[in-house]
Design a protein that fits this description.
Largest sheet: none
Strand content: under 5%
Number of domains: 1
Radius of gyration: 19 Å
Helix content: 55-70%
Shape: flat
Order of helices and strands: HHHH
Structural class: mainly alpha
Number of helices: 4
Length: about 90
């Protein structure tokens, strides 16, 4: 399990409380929903890759296992690769 901390100014908290019944719940739900969407994307990409690979005879039924086993690059790694490919003037 990983823990992340978000610091808000008093004004930011007041603004979030204006639109969210419980700011902590809203933050938790927003993060978990974004993770769910990304996990679904990774799962779908990985299953497609496995289906196209004749050497793979089994696909795990557990979505988290598929996501954890996926050989993917983080957004930071993809950004670094992109930045390296951009010509410098």
């Amino acid at each position: 399990m990983n823990t992340f901390t978000v610091e808000l100014t008093d004004a930011e908290l007041k603004a979030l409380a204006f639109v969210a019944f419980d700011p902590q719940d809203w933050i938790d739900n927003a993060v978990h929903e974004r993770c769910r969407i990304a996990m679904e994307e990774i799962f779908n990409m990985e299953v497609q890759r496995m289906l196209q690979d004749p050497s793979i005879t089994e696909i795990p039924a557990d979505r988290e296992a598929v996501v954890l086993a996926a050989n993917i690059k983080s957004a930071a790694e993809r950004n670094d690769e992109f930045m390296e490919s951009v010509p410098v003037e």
